[in-house]
Specification:
Blueprint lengths: L1 H5 L8 H12 L4 H18 L3
Amino acid sequence: MSFLRALEPNKNLDDNWVHLMIAARNMGISKEEVQRFIRQSQKQENLKHQP
């Protein structure tokens, strides 16, 4: 994970999210695909909680 060492410390970035995005990139998943997945998951979760 030499890429992580190249990042400057940033209080605004969550380490878990950084690791997740690096893992996704290493698997060939684009940030747009991750964003799409998160949006879909949020929509589904919101639908579960509607009366």
